[in-house]
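User: I'm writing a tutorial on reading structure tokens. Could you give me a worked example: one chain, its sequence, then its tokens, then a sentence or two explaining what the tokens reveal?
Assistant: Sure. Here is the example chain.
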Amino acid sequence: MQTTRNNKSRSTGRNRNQRPQARPAKNKKVSKLDPNLLIKAAQPSGQEGFQSKTPFAGLPIHEKVLQNVAAKGYENMTYIQEKSIQGLLEGRDMLGISNTGSGKTAAFLIPIIEHALKDSKFEALIVTPTRELALQIEEEFKSLTQGLPLRSATFIGGTNINTDVKTLSRKLNVIVGTPGRLLDLANRRLLKFQTIQTLVLDEFDRMLDMGFVNDVKKIIAGMTQRKQTMLFSATLEPSQKNLIDGILRNPIQVKVNNGGTSSENVDQDIIRVPEGKDKFGMLTDLFQEEGLDKVIIFTETKRLADRVSKKLNQNGIRSGLIHGNKSQNNRNRTIDEFKNGDTRVLVATDVAARGIDVSDVTHVINYQLPMTMDSYIHRIGRTGRAGKTGVAITFVD
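And here are its predicted structure tokens:
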């Protein structure tokens, strides 16, 4: 697809030297992001996670795991995997920074699987900020352990806790979950943190912000037998340094990027919305162009997500919708429909910015200017994955 910066037919009032006119409503949060930072041509160098020249076959891991890796189509490691797996096999703590879609999940799962195969009492806990990310991690674990006697389970909000009780009666090697449900189970004395040796905080920048940090501290305090801790994310918040230093012990630090930049595999541009212009009409005009085959649209609020999805469907653009008010079953079904191509568009709030691993997302569209650069980086990381190039477009009112 021809990107927006070269498309002369798109005379939508954009002027890169012109600042957007803010029209803040009372009590409405206003983004302080400079829209000009969101204009960047894709410059894929092959250095952002894909692909190293080091084969998985050289790793000292179980033959069946190597077979499962090969069955997934992976021959060589990505950079984050190449630089982290060996140290994690040795039991080192780790701080890993690499853009979304660069293979972070396998980077921590492969060592965990190897430890579990060598020690029948081994348990690992993987904590994530979103339900979708938790489910994705367990799916990856199952694909890597096919044919091996290892068990995992996911514990997340929006599901029947009675089912969790039954699941916890079995021996689990890997537990994946969101903080609220994990603490709920621990408070009921169904989940015992003190027996778990390994902790992973995935998307740790989100896990250590004000929304989750107290829950994470409680989980860590309960893990009295903790021997290894791994923190992985695409972004790094400098203000969290002291907290990170208190969690990790002499860690390996792997930074494939600096934790504050967007993916080099994504062509980024903005569309300025002139005052009085029909913004939704400008959105639907985009879908007349070729190449918008699998699109995620982000909004700042659930109400606006509802409205945009409904209007897209009314205009013949089939879309699904996920946000915090949707049941987990509904969210799972919607994502499956998007993955399978039954819907062309997924409209979402930030619940989908982390953890939605859908192949071949061609475009990410921010219907509103994101509140933070961190949010922007994670959103547009849904496209341009696995070494491919994607497009990100942000509407600026």
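What the tokens reveal: The chain is about 30% helix and 15% strand. The chain has two domains: 4-45+263-396, 56-255.
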